[in-house]
Amino acid sequence: MLEMMKKQGFRPRSCVWELTLRCNMSCLHCGSRAGEPREDELSIDELLSLADELAELGCKYVTLSGGEPLVRRDWPVLAKRLVDHGVAVNMISNGFIFTEKTLEMAKAVGLRNVAFSVDGDQAIHDKIRNKKDAYARVMRAIDVCVKNDYPVSVVSHVTNANLGMLEEMAETFADLGVRAWQVQGGFEAGNLSDHPELMPRPRDLIRIESELARLAATSPIRLHVSDSIGY
């Protein structure tokens, strides 16, 4: 693969790396149906070898994801390897097991920032995440980062469950001290294909885009729109 990429002249400038399919949640909108790890997931030696190849290819940005990346206890080893190569590394997590100790490890290995998934208020978030206390845990994770002046952002999926509360969510995140908010749509794949009631209708995109455009212009939080919103 490395030789082929070099021959073609391609450079993977950024990469989202799903470290594992294992997850401590079973979210209703999870496109990967995360939960149990795959039988043939990469060993730490294989992860490090791939990290070396990515760096050699010229990759500049890597986001560690999953599943839930924090359930792989060797994630700091991989993160440090990438950082030592000069790669900017961040992470997307559900925040359920993120603690002060996790933050210390993140700082120690040079993780640039962390993004936590939040999908509404407490009732909606816990329902979507299919996990009791999911909201309380992720709010605590955000608070840990903010109090320690560590860059933190939020990622949210727009569904019919939170379609009418985007402004409220923006205000909540800004008040918490979150620096940026990524809003994305879902695809009818994985668990979300089992819950069509959560999928906004095509005509709802006009409402979603108008609301997000207004928030991008007025909210103190930096708003980024991605995935299937807008096309």
Q: Quick recap of the structure?
A:
The protein has helices spanning 2-8, 44-57, 75-84, 100-109, 122-129, 134-147, 166-176, 204-218; strands at 14-18, 61-65, 88-93, 113-117, 152-157, 180-184, 222-226. The protein has 231 residues and is of the alpha/beta class. The mean pLDDT is 93.
Written account of the structure:
With 231 residues, the protein is an alpha/beta fold. The chain is built from 8 helices and 7 strands. It has helices at residues 2-8, 44-57, 75-84, 100-109, 122-129, 134-147, 166-176, 204-218; strands at residues 14-18, 61-65, 88-93, 113-117, 152-157, 180-184, 222-226. The protein has a 7-stranded parallel sheet, with helices on one face. Helix 2 links the parallel strand 1 and strand 2. The longest helix has 15 residues, at 204-218. It starts with a helix and ends in a 5-residue tail after the last strand. The model has no long low-confidence stretch (mean pLDDT 93).
Tell me the Rg in angstroms.
Answer: 18 Å
Number of strands: 7
Identify the strand order in the major beta sheet: 1-2-3-4-5-6-7
Strand content: 15-25%
N-end to C-end Cα span = 31 Å
Poorly predicted residue ranges: none
> For the report, how would you describe the main beta sheet?
7 strands, parallel
Mean pLDDT: 93
Query: Secondary-structure element order, as H and E?
Result: HEHEHEHEHHEHEHE
- Amount of helix: 25-40%
Provide a count of the helices. 8
The helix/strand class is alpha/beta
Shape: globular
